[in-house]
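Side project, low priority. Logging it here so it doesn't get lost.
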Amino acid sequence: MDYRLKDTTSKDAFNYSYLIKRIYPYIKPVLGRALINLAIAIPLGLLDGVMALALKPYLDHVVNGSPNDTWSFMGFTVNPQAFLAAIIPFGIVAFAAFQGILKYLSNYFTDWTGNKISNALKVDLFKKLTGLDPQFYDVNSSGIVLTRFLTDPETASKTIIESLKSFIATIFGLVGLVGVLLYTSWKLAIIGVTVMAIAVTPVVFIRKRIKKVSNATMVVGGNMTTNFNETFAGNKIMTAYNLQEIQNNKFEKQINEQFHLAMSLSKRVGWMSPIMYTVCSIGIALVMAYGNHLILSGELSAGSFAAFVTSLLLLYKPTKTLGNTLTSLQNTFVAMSRTFELFDLVPQIKSPEKAFSMRPLENTIEFKHVYFEYEQNTPVLKDLNLTVNKNETIALVGNSGGGKSTVVNLLPRFYDVKSGSIEFDGIDIRNFDLKSLRDNIAFVFQDNFMFSGTIRENIMMGNKNATAEQLEKAIEMAHLDEFIDALENGLDTIVGERGATLSGGQRQRVAIARAILKDAPIVILDEATSALDNKSEAIVQRALDNLIKNKTVFVIAHRLSTIKNADRIAVINEGELAELGTHDQLMMIENGIYRNLYEMQFKSQETQEIQGI
């Protein structure tokens, strides 16, 4: 499966029944209020014709009526001119108040249901996001991910009820107004409705253009968000290398691209409004010309004609703006289509149907004829064979890009091997329940990620059920106690986004405390001390020594002291296991890879360590 989010086709953007069916489970919990909202839209639409209908009796009986006219009802006789002159103003106020209450209720229910649907969609999409493989994050920028997982669901869900409500209100408004037209003059109604149908016809031609521009706009919007994120996260690099102008030019280019896309859509959709205005105006002109004939011939009263023209104007108003309305509605369906494409993403790495629950390692971890590649036909590991014993510490060394990090990333199944297998006690790790597999492995990286929150929260991520005594012991073993005691708020100190308020060594020790608290039998140290100065490294190394006691350890390191303390050293070169043995054994290999690495990289470190530098 291709994880690239830019490559969307929105193939179901015009399959409205399918999209409604997909979003229905999110509408179902709020269906009661949604139906009330849609029911309110019916009288709201029908009431559009009331004002127009009121003009007929007002003009016929109040303006053009006679004081001698009478109405008889159930034995009562009233003068229609006086009665309607008194009642119609109050009726208008009552009608406006009633319509206002309905509109308030409709808007409230629209916002309530829209936000509920949107929130439910976002929660499920976030669960989908957290369940995807690391490869997904490798091939997608942060901006595209944010746009697809936040903006699209917002557009798709919040506007669906609004769109349905508007559609129902418009339909019933049209029904009511057409009813008034037929009631006042069926002959004029034929002219008016025919012209309206002609005016609406061009709308069917805009759908594909909307889809194309909407997808392109999504990509540009994602790139802009990525630019923001990179400017924020990489602000020191940007400042150090004076990259402000480059970032500014990149953003300006994206803004201009977004502008051209908006104008492209405007050009292709905007022409409909003037055409509709013109066609509707022709309809009104035809109605007025023929209406004058009907009035002069006595077939139509002035009140009926006024009511008809008012209804026709109200009927044409939504017709003339239908292009913009349908553009918005189609955008909703395009966003909805893109949203459900996200739900259709299937993690490639998951637990098998009949998974084993992994137990603590008893004997060995074996890499058997392992081949792996990130990009097709670009091998990273080639026929790797390696056996690691329980409680053994094995150091992985080699030139940059040789495959060391890939080896350890395969253990918790961040990625799966292309061929071959990795076995824990003879069982292929692909047969384990994924959660139980990862519960048995602890990681300490070179640049450990700190989540926004407190030091306590970041450490407790290792074991959320840990006791206060276990937490205190982990802090002590990670040599964090002195640092934490010096803080005003101690463990409840906020670390800032990405741990910005902590030094590199402090972040490392927090990560080590987290790993100690997890107490997993397998530990992976991925260049855990390479970015530290000697003083920080010494403290962190003592913490690491506490972490790896009685554990099976894979360590990627650039520091000689870490490598020499390993039980064995595996030299990974061009994706292959080139050499394997202790430091002394590998140093005896004439022209060996490890020996050359030692001469080039490690010897100066050894001299510095001897001199205490």
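Brief comment: The radius of gyration is 36 Å.
Revisit when time allows.
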